[in-house]
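Translate sequence into C-alpha cells.
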Amino acid sequence: MLVNEAAGTVLRLGAANLEAQLRSAFEQSGIAASLMVLASADLAAAAKAALEQARAGQFDAIMAGGGDGSIRTIAGILAGTEIPLGILPLGTLNHFARDLGIPPDPRAAVAAMATGTVRRVDVGVMNGAIFLNNSSIGLYPFLVLRRERQRRRRHLPKWLAMVLALLRVPRHLPLFPLTVRVEGLAESCRTPLVFIGNNDYQLALPALGRRERLDGAELSIFVARSDSFRAFLWLALRIILGFSQAAHEMRIVKGKSADIVSGRRRLLAAFDGEVELVHPPLHYQIRPGALRVFVPSETNA
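Result follows.
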C-alpha cells in the first residue's frame, strides 16, 4: 500500500494515527500488507518497484492512498497490466473513488477491498499520459493554478481557494482558438473551455459531476461557446439546473478518440485536478478496460 503523505486525510489525522488505523483494518480483514507513506514525488517510482514485485509473486495487489492525483499516478503504472488496484480515498474530492462506490472512511475502504470484487474500468489517455476522471483545456487549469496559490499563501481549504480564484477571473474571459476533431467531425472555435471526460458525465443537479459507469468505452467532449465570463457563468448555471436550451451554447460530442489542434506551441491542461504544460497537437483516446480495480461487491462500475 502506497500512501501520499500530503493527502488531506493524512494531514488531518496524522501519518502515525492513520497508519495505525490501516494496520488494524488490514489485520481485521485478513490482509497481509506492506505499508509505505511517501512524498508525492516518490509515488511513481514506488509503484514501479511494487509492480515488479507483484509480477514476481510477492504481492497480489497494489493499493493507492491519496486524492485523485495520487491515484492517477499509481494507476498510470498499473494500467495495461493484470495487477489490480485498490483505492483508499484520502483526498478532498475523491471523484474516482466516489464513482466506483468506494466508502470514504479508510477502514471501510480496506474492508470493501477485502470483500469486494475486481472489475475492469476504462482510462483516458492524452499523448500517452492517462487520466481517470477528466482532462480540460482553457479556464479550468488557470483556476487550479490560482487556487493552489491561494492555498499555499493562506492555508485555505480547496473549495474556498477556488471561490477566491473565480472572483479574480478577468472581466475579459480568455478565449483559446482550437480545432477539435472527433472521429471525422471537425470544429474550429474560440472557446474558454474544452472538457474531456473518461465516460459520460452528468451535468445537472442532483447528479452533477457523477458518472453512472466507467466501462462505457467512450470519451465525452464538451466545448463551451461563451465569449465572456458572465455568459460562461450563465451557461454553467443553466446547464447545472437542467435547462436544455443552454445546449446550443455547449457543443457535446462523444467518441473513442479526439484530436485538439492549436496555433500555440504550449497549453496548460488539467488532468484529474492537476495541471501540466502540454504541447499540441493533443491526441485523446479511450482505453477500454485497461485498469483492474477493487470495488464493493454491490457496485456496478
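Note: DSSP finds nine helices and 16 strands in the chain.
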